[in-house]
Design brief:
Elements lengths: L1 H26 L5 H4 L4 H7 L13 E7 L1 H16 L3 E7 L5 H8 L4 E6 H11 L3 E9 L3 E4 L13 E5 L2 H13 L4 E2 L12 E3 L5 E5 L13 E4 L1 H6 L4 H4 L2 E2 L7 E7 L6 H10 L2 H11 L4 E2 L3
Parallel strand pairs: 1-2, 1-3, 6-9, 6-10
Antiparallel strand pairs: 3-12, 4-12, 4-13, 5-10, 5-11, 7-8
């Protein structure tokens, strides 16, 4: 009997606890869906408005070009803004001779160079085992005959000294200019490979002084006449049109080119540079700046 009473007491206690729990639940206000919902980090992220992704800046392409100071580097400076609009940063390295820029190009230190004409490039390749090719013909620089100790070509003194470039192609070109003005006569067929050994008639007994092209303006006062490349004349403060005694006519064979290592002539940045150099903007710049001393080349 006592055991039965204890069991009944326990049951009554359980019923009382259950009743109290139910009562407590009934009295608690229901939570709103927003309060009961537990947001996972993923859900929170999904609920946030998607942020617009900022466009990554276009990577600037660098283009390194070797050039003679004038007019080539000056022309390239005018080209810089045109290339910058296309995301190309043009870096110009200046050279004062005709050998180092080709060596640097062959070595891969330059993307291109701009200082020479095609006959010179072909001769350089043959003599040095290089593999350089033209990417485009840009302009023509006429050679001029300049007065040194003698003032004009109408009274050439007997035994006059005439300085000419000593590189193969420009020496021949200078000798042809002297021939065109009746100062010497070359052997038939000598053409663009002529040297002073090809002189067959020399009525004034002139002495041909072969000189490194860049140095000719520096010795002008020491010779009677000098044949000077326009770029070196401009560097020396000479105006090829106004200061020369005679100036070479346009010769497409001697158009100055943009040169590259073989295989790179069709790369996008090289073609962009060629297009800029041949653009109306740069043609106008050349005409306005050099007034005939540098002539844009027409393909």
């Amino acid at each position: 009997m006592k055991l039965t009473k204890k069991i009944l007491a326990a049951l009554l206690a359980l019923v009382l606890v259950a009743a109290l729990s139910a009562c407590s639940s009934a009295q608690k206000p229901a939570e709103s869906p927003a309060e009961t919902a537990v947001e996972s980090p993923a859900a929170t992220d999904a609920a946030q408005p998607e942020e617009s992704q900022a466009a990554e800046p276009t990577e600037t392409v660098k283009l390194v070009v070797g050039a003679s100071p004038a007019p080539h580097a000056e022309i390239l400076e005018a080209v810089k803004p045109l290339l910058a609009e296309q995301g190309i940063e043009l870096e110009i390295e200046e050279f004062t001779d005709y050998v180092l820029p080709n060596q640097a190009l062959e070595a891969g230190d330059l993307d291109a160079n701009y200082f020479q004409h095609l006959p010179y490039l072909l001769n350089f390749n043959e003599n040095n085992g290089t593999n350089l090719v033209p990417a485009g013909a840009i302009h023509f620089e006429p050679l001029g005959i300049y007065a040194g100790k003698s003032a004009d070509l109408s009274n050439i003194p007997d035994g006059a000294t005439i300085s000419v470039p000593n590189d193969a192609t420009n020496e021949a070109r200078a000798l042809l200019l002297l021939q065109d003005n009746g100062i010497i006569k070359l052997a038939d067929g000598a053409g663009i490979t002529a040297t002073k050994n090809d002189i067959v008639e020399n009525p004034y007994n002139v002495e041909i002084v072969e000189t490194e092209a860049a140095q000719i303006p520096n010795i002008l006062q020491d010779v009677d006449y000098a044949v000077i490349n326009s770029n070196y004349a401009i560097n020396a403060g000479l105006n090829p049109v106004a200061d020369s005694l005679v100036i070479e006519g346009s010769a497409s064979a001697y158009a100055n080119i943009l040169a590259v290592k073989e295989g790179n002539e069709n790369s996008e940045k090289i073609q962009a540079l060629v297009a800029a150099l041949k653009s109306d903007t740069i043609r106008q710049y050349i005409n306005d700046t050099y007034d005939g001393a540098v002539v844009p080349f027409d393909d």
